[in-house]
Amino acid sequence: MDNLDIRILGRLLNNCRESDRQIGKELGISGGAVRARIRKMQNSKVIEKFTIRVEPPVLGYGVLYFVVSGQNTKEILEQVSLVGQPFFVVPCVGGVTVCSIVVKDNMEQKIELAKQLMKDVRVLSIFEAENPGYSTNLTKTDLEIIEKLLDNPREKIESIAKKTNLSTKTVTRCLEKLQENDGIQFTLIYDPTKIEGFIPHAILTWIERDLKETLTQMNEKFSDSYLQIPFISKNQIVLFMYSNDIFQMDDITQKVRNVNNVKSADLFIPKKITFLEKWLEDSIKEAKKSPTLHLSYQTN
Q1: pLDDT tens-digit profile of 84-95?
Q2: What is the DSSP string of 80-124?
Q3: Domains of the chain, with CATH numbers?
């Protein structure tokens, strides 16, 4: 892979519905060249699949994050499933796995329950994701379109309209609404082990004092190394980045630690990334039973 490939990958991670032509315009190449590079990354399995990621708070759920010792994904999923529905699981270099679960309410009780039930894996850290104020005013039509896009979030508007028996105008309006929601992301799943020439990594930072001010500083210093838009959760900022080699990666991590208000920063190098969609499919199925068109969610 070269710099153009990694930049195309980054654009698709942040919005996979962006057209090849628009990506090419931003990067100074043709839409056909972008399409060829995407196809190359799909054939080499760098891009595993395109997907739509819905943050659980959008549908009224809370999220618990775990950092556990071990790499046995099946065992870890079995353990976290005792407390809530799995959201994602990411084994990392160094023998740790980062994962999260979707829970409905009583977060503090769920944290204590996790500590009691998860006996077969060593839990290094548990923390709750603060509801960041995502828009939760969805309709049944919005959820129907999300459901159709789970298989192919890059699907054309005309095709979506045909499958849902909705007008192209309605589909277009719904897609615009979904894309404006920070808690809904049209993205992709990639295989970190297939990316040659670059090292994708995440830096989990714990922030004291002003979170937004700290994020602004980070954007000014590190945006050129971003693979994805940073994720904010309570008093954490997660930076999704890429480096050319381990020396550059170490240098960036040290610089992040030196940013004002950063209390600590932990480096994670993913080996595999898995997002689980069953919780979303179940939530959509349940929402369809509602007698109302508008579904207003609220987390506890």
Answers
A1: 999 999 999 999
A2: HTTTSEEEEEEEETTTEEEEEEEE-S-HHHHHHHHHHH--SSEEE
A3: 3-44 (1.10.10.10), 52-191+273-300 (3.30.70.260), 198-268 (3.30.70.260)
